[in-house]
Hints:
Helix content: over 70%
Shape: globular
Oligomer: single chain
Number of helices: 13
Amino acid sequence: MPWKHWSAERLGIALAILAALGFSFKAIFVKLAYAVPQAVPVDSVTLLALRMVFSLPAFAWVGWKASRNLPPLTLREWGWVTALGLLGYYGASILDFMGLQYITASLERLILFTYPTLTILIGVVFLGKTASRREIGALLLSYAGIGLAFAHDLHIAGEMRAVLIGAAFVLGSSVSYAFYQAGSEPVIRRLGAARFTALAMLVSTVATLLHFAVSQPLQALAQPAPVYLHAVGMAVFSTVLPVFMTSAAIRRIGAARTALIGTLGPMLTIFFGYWLLAEPMSVWQMMGAGLVLAGVLLISRRKV
C-alpha cells in the first residue's frame, strides 16, 4: 500500500475514534451540568438551548460555505430538511436530555445506540422492507443487552418509576434519530453531507430556541459558570467536532468502517460514567453492553 494511502487510512481511523470519544462524552457533559450546585438545577430545555446556541456559529459558517454558488433549495427540499432537522437534532436531543434527568449516562448510551436496529424496524414497518435472519438476530441481541443494563439501573436506583420514565424518554430519542437516519440518506445524496447537516442543525436550533421561548423565562439563561462551561464543552467536543470528524473519517475509510469504530461509544460512556460520575459498574452492565455492541456489529458486518 502506498505511503499516502496508508497515512490517509491511519488518519481516518484516528478521526473515527476521536468522533466516537466526543459523541460518548455528551451524556457526561449533561450529567455534570445537572449536578452543578444551585437552588434550581438547570432544566433540559435550557441546557439544550445553550448547547445549540454555542454550536450555531460553526454550523452557520459551514452552511454558508457549502451553499455558495449553488442554487437555493426548493420548497420540497426545505420541507425535508426541516422535518429531518426536527427529528434528528431537536426531537432526539430534547428527549435524550430529559431522559438523562432520570437514568445513568451508561444506560442512556446503550438505549440510544439501538438506533441502527430501530432503523431496520422502521424499514420493515413503514417502507415495506423485509428483515433477514441476521437483522432479526441483531435485534434480539441488542434488546437482550438493554434488558440487562435496564435491570442494573433499576437495582441501583431502587425506584422503578424514575428508571422507566428515563428509559422511555431515551428510547423515544433513539426512535426519533432512527427516523432521521432512515430519511436522511436520499436528501444527503441530493444536497451533500456538509450542506444538509449544517442546514438541519440550523433548523433544530430555531426549534430549540422557540421551545425555550414558550416554556422558560429569559432569566433561565442566567446559569452558574460551570453550566456554561459544560454547555460549551458539549457544543465543541460532543457536537461540532465529532460531526466534522465523522465526515472526514467517512471520506478516508468509508461509512461502514466508521460506523464499526463508532461502536466504541457505549463502552467509552460506561467508562467515563464510572470514572467521572461515580456511576457503579457491574458484570451485568458489561454483559448488556456487550450484547448491544454485538447486535450493532452484526448489522454492520453486512455492509463491510
